[in-house]
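Why do we care about 3D structure at all? Because function follows from shape, and shape follows, mostly, from sequence. That is the central idea of this module. The next example makes it concrete: a single protein chain, its amino acid sequence, and then its structure expressed as C-alpha cells.
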Amino acid sequence: MLKKLSRSATLGVALALVALAASFAVSPKAFAQSGQSDSTLEIRLRTRLSGPPLNGQTPHGKAEFEQEDSGRKFSVEVQGVTLPNGTILVVGVNGTRVGTLKIQGGDGTPLLVRCHAPNVTKGSKVVIRAAGNAIMSGTF
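And the structure:
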C-alpha cells in the first residue's frame, strides 16, 4: 500500500529532483574545469546526404558536426549537383538557414559562402535547397 506524502515531504522530493536535473545541466567547460575529468568533452555527428536525380545525376554528400570545449564546427560537402555555375544552395538545419554554398567552377563545384555552426543533436535534419526546392537531405 502506498503512503501519501505530506506537503513538506513532497516539496523535499521535488527539490531533490530539481537539484539532480541541475547537476546534469553543467556546461562541458565547467565540468572539465571542475577537475572531475582530465579529458575534454567531444561530440561528433555525421550523416550522409542524398536526393533524387537532378539533371541526370544523383546529388549526394555529407554533413559533419563537432563540438568540443573550444567550440562547434559544422561542415557540408555536396557532389553531383548538376546546376549552373552561380547557383546558390541554402543549407538548413531543423528548418533554420545556417549557410549557403555557391556552385562555381567548370564542374559545378560548390564553394562555401557563409555558414555558422548550428546546435546539432541526434535526430537533427539537414536540408540542401536550390531555388527553394530540397535537392538533398540527411538526418544525424
